[in-house]
Each structure stands twice: as C-alpha cells, then as structure tokens.
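hey m, so remember when u said the tokens were messed up on ur end? i reran from scratch. heres the input so u can diff it against urs
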Amino acid sequence: MRIGLYPGTFDPLTLGHADIIKRACALVDRLVIGIAINGAKGPLFSLEERVAMVEAECKILSHETGTQIIAHPFENLLIHCAHDVGAQIIIRGLRAVADFEYEYQMVGMNRAMDASVETVFLMAEARHQSIASKLVKEIARLDGDISSFVSEPVRAVLLEKLNK
C-alpha cells in the first residue's frame, strides 16, 4: 500500500489545500493529513477544531476519489511523523518560487535523515495559487468575502470563530 503524508497547519483548510489533497489521492492508496500542532505559529483554531475541519472536508474528498484519507495530528519532526504513519511519500504543495526555496531546504534535511522517504511537489491550480490561510483569516477579519478561498463549511466556522 502506498501511503502519502501531506503536512500542514491547516488554519484553516483552504480550497488550495483541498486541491492538493484531491490530486495527491491519485498518487497514493492512503493519504494522511498531518496536522501540525505547532503552537509557535499561533493558530487561530485549536488542534481539535483544525482536525474536525480536515476530517469533514476529507470525508467528501475520500468519497470522490476512493482514497482513504485520515487526519493525524503531530508535533515531532516531519520525517518522524512519516515513519509513524508508514508514509513512503511526503506531499508538499507549492504556490510560488518563495515556497520552493523553503521546501528545497526541507527536502535536503529530510533526505539526510531518511533517504527512503520521497518528497513530491504538487503545484496548486492557478486559481488557488494566491490562497494562503494567513491572508484568508485577515480578509475575514476585515469583513471581506472569502467564499472563493474556502469551502462554505470552513467559511461558516471561520466567521463564527471571528464572531462575524
């Protein structure tokens, strides 16, 4: 069984994330969504809220693709998380050249720790390349329309969280 790991903070899960998840399903039999606990990033949503969002969105994507998708919180090294879930592939989404520079360093470090785990980059669809969770939260805080950046259920949860 080919197992992939798609890690991120998912604060919140965007349509860009969902696009990468859906396309990653074509590459693996099981896709683990690694939800980074990473309190240093100061997430708006609690870990439990982020897991719930990911599980709700991925239930639909799993049904559409026929791929098993599971949410897995983690706070250890990414390569250790890959070992924990039995992943042979780490999936990373790219939006811009700046993403690649950071990801290039991460791949080098991960390969130095375990060369048997491959990293695969998927470019976000053009219409999703500008979407960043940080910007979505800022737009929502300032009463902007985020409906083209997140699903309706995520939009509702985000607006409720911001008391909008």
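this time it looks ok to me. Residues 94 and 100 are 7 Å apart (CA to CA). if urs says something different then somethings off w ur setup not the seq
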